[in-house]
Known about the structure:
- This protein is α/β, with parallel strands linked by helices.
- It contains 11 helices and 5 strands.
- It has a 5-stranded parallel beta sheet with strand order 2-3-4-1-5, with helices on both faces.
Amino acid sequence: MFNRQAVTDIIHWYQQPQRKPLVIRGARQVGKTTAVRMAGKQLGVPVIEINLERHPELDPLFRRYQLDDLLFNFSLITGEAITPDKPLILFLDEAQATPAAYSCLRYFWEDMPQLAVILTGSLLDQVLNNYQLPSPVGRIEPYYMGALRFDEFLQAIGAEKESRALDMLNARNMHLIPDSLHEKLLGLVRRYTLTGGMPHCIQLGLDTHFNHADILKYQTALLQTYRDDFAKYRGSNPL
């Protein structure tokens, strides 16, 4: 697991005295679920995780905004007693499978503002457009999470020296960079480009000494799953 700015941002969100439900958007496999788990671990609070793809039976409760019944069902599913004032993170994952969960966030904010709720999903915008459900305008905190940035990539592969060097550079001193460091950084940029910043690709690179064939094989499989997702969730809208 790599250190991500998103983990720090989630921790900051949780520590706010008034926090709206956090909606984390982003493609599959960029690390959304891992970031939420890591934030909970660092905060020392339990993360009550509900994978909505696995529990389609919850959809009617979300559609009727029956929050008490939802919390009771979450408690039964996880074996953890969940109350609005308990220090925990209620994590609704894979929300594209149950779009009504997104609309329901309005009532979590209005009726249970002390409950920390995070919702994540892939292709969430597309699904919401297909179903045309009410949007909780002004009652959520949106957050977009992408692949690792270059500075996060450097930290992930242990290139701390190069990362510190980059922090020292600016427009006035850029011309002073040694050729050896310049070549080293160019090589790291090529490796970063090869992985696309995707966490699993970076881990594969570390495990295989950045074997191009192994990384490309995983990327090809990942692209196919993206195509499958597009076909599943596009509805009547061409992509």
